[in-house]
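Sample A.
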Amino acid sequence: MSLSFVEVPKTALRESWEFVRDGLERIIAKTSDDWIPEDVYAEIRAGSSALFLIYSAEDRIGFIVMQAWPSYHNGARLFVRALWVEPGALREHQQQIEDWLRDGARKFGATAIRMNSPRRWDAAGWTLKQYIYELPV
């Protein structure tokens, strides 16, 4: 089944926020990170992040929040701020999602796509660029 990706205008964010907030809460539960869903809401409303809902036929199955990172020495990057799909859907639709991300990155003029994850993605073709460590003070 083919997926569709629908950008949510920042002025219409409220209409899908309950669904997105729930997915963000699930991401936070897995990553134990210190941001809150309202941080992402503010980023989208401010225009520093963009939200795309993912549909399989008529069913809304997930979302992607992306940021355009500026060009440095090796070019601009498309950063996946958050990606959430219904349990089990990533395995089935991963290639379509990655193809869509690549197409969007090319249109933006990015040389790569980046993301953070609590697990390794080497086997899926992603290159590990760095480890991120944190030392509490």
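Sample B.
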Amino acid sequence: MGVGFAETLNAGLKFRTGEKTQMGISVGTWPSPGGYIFDWNSLISLSGDFYYHFGGHAFEQTLPYWYIRSGIDYMRLRFDDDTDNNIEMHIRFGRDFYVSEISGIGLDAGVAVFVLNESGLTQVLPAIGINLFFLF
């Protein structure tokens, strides 16, 4: 579970794909601010990411705690009379902070570039995220 731009408030899954790699997917939303310029009826985001981990290990069985994350996010904003679709690609640098052998907090930051931008947002924006994770 996490929050970020452009994943919004989201829930997702990560799958270990190798000794130092993961793939992740998430779905998210954001409540309408009501009365502001961006007063949408619904906002949905879908994300897919690839993670490459490096550096030291917090625990023997965990992935290294530093990572590079690249991915793509789709956001759909629906208004009363219109729907805006946005797709952005990002690259981020981050770190997992383990609270225990099975849980922790991940923080990352980088840059996002819109490849489809129907909302008129700035073409290049910061990409940031924080998430709570549990290992199964």
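B remarks: The chain has a mean pLDDT of 90. The CA atoms of residues 4 and 129 lie 4 Å apart.
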